[in-house]
Amino acid sequence: MDATFFALVGLILFFALIFYLKVPATVGKSLDGRAARIQRELDEARSLREEAQKLLAEYQRKREEAEAEAEGIVAQAKRDAALIAEEARVKTEEFVKRREALAEQKIAQAEADAIGEVKSQAVAIAIAASAELLGKGVDAKASADLFKASLNEIKARMN
To answer: Quick check: 8 pLDDT over 70?
Structure first.
């Protein structure tokens, strides 16, 4: 019996002891447990990934809705601004028309006042000329000349 024989017997006893203690089954169970745990983690990761994709899709949908709503708000604001600008333009035009009408009324009043003043001065001149004629006791030819002169003076003052 040499050392090789004892090494072989020791190896056989070692394997027998390992099988007797059910080490391969324990290792197999351990590996099966680890495989099951890894499978659970993979399944959980898969479900988390699917949930993340659903959340991503939902957030993208919400973002698109928010963008559409923002575009609607901007479009409404532009329409409102255009309406306000149009109303301001109309009100400005109405204001200018009222101011023009008021200015025309003032001009017409000033013109009427000027015409009235010219008429009153013409009457005063005519009265003065009549008084001068009556005071001098002039003949018909002199009175006609004086009348023409007064008339020319009135025309000159009216212009």
So the answer is: yes
Q: Cα–Cα distance between 115 and 151 in angstroms, integer? A: 16
List all residues 6 or more positions away from 143 whose beta carbon is below 8 Å from its beta carbon: 133
Where on the phi/psi map is residue 139: left (φ > 0), alpha (ψ -120 to 50), or beta?
beta
Whole-prediction pTM value?
0.43
Query: Which residues does 153 contact at the CB level (< 8 Å), separation at least 6?
Result: 125
Residue pair 108/144 in contact by the 8 Å Cβ criterion: no
Q: Cα dist. 13→2, 3, 5, 10 in Å?
A: 17, 15, 12, 5
As given in the structure block, the two tokens for residue 155 are 């025309």
